[in-house]
Design a protein that fits this description.
With 185 residues, the protein is of the alpha/beta class. The protein is built from 7 helices and 5 strands; from the N terminus they run βαβαβααβαβαα. The chain has one domain: Rossmann fold.
Length: 185
């Protein structure tokens, strides 16, 4: 098996990589996340991952560019339902790279997050893999989410506060803003 592991960020990758290595699978990391905004956030996550990959001896492929305009164009028709298009962009890029470079399987660190729509992500990843002639190596990494977050803090890795897209940042801000008003009523 030759596995290309899409990585959204270093903290989410910790337990995914550790779990796969414990199974005897050596993944190759793949960074392609045009959904992450603003640019300073994109750069912080990317640089943190590059440093972390070096520290654990993980081969890492950096693909794609910062992509505000392509991302917004892809999700503009349905901002509230944007996740499916976001998943599709990243899983298609991963599967296409895998197909073109001799990988047999893909997976994603997004499977570690309890905040993602896990079943939708799995469906999209399976479709992308099938369309590009590779297989999805499905793993539900969620049981190791908190452990991974704790290890990331111990390693003093950059820890983000939202999934990455500018709309999730907006959602996070709106939730914070509502809390004081809810307490007052």
């Amino acid at each position: 098996m030759k596995l290309l592991l899409h990585i959204c960020c270093a903290p989410c990758s910790i337990m995914c990589i550790e779990t796969l290595r414990n199974e005897g699978i050596e993944p190759v990391g793949f960074w392609d996340n045009l959904n992450i905004h603003p640019y300073t956030e994109y750069r912080s996550r990317k640089n943190c991952l590059v440093d972390y990959a070096k520290s654990i001896g993980l081969e890492l492929i950096l693909s794609g560019e910062y992509g505000l305009r392509p991302f917004v164009k892809a999700v503009a028709e349905d901002i509230d339902g944007r996740c499916v298009n976001c998943y599709r962009m990243r899983m298609d890029a991963t599967a296409a790279y895998a197909e073109a470079n001799g990988f047999t399987h893909i997976c994603t660190t997004l499977f570690v997050s309890p905040y993602q729509n896990h079943e939708l992500l799995r469906q999209v990843a399976e479709e992308s893999a099938r369309a590009h002639g590779v297989e999805l190596l499905y793993r539900d990494f969620r049981p190791w989410f908190r452990e991974g977050q704790n290890k990331a803090r111990e390693l003093e890795l950059y820890m983000q506060k939202y999934c990455g897209c500018i709309f999730s940042e907006e959602d996070r801000y709106r939730k914070k803003k509502k809390k004081p008003a809810e307490v007052q009523s």
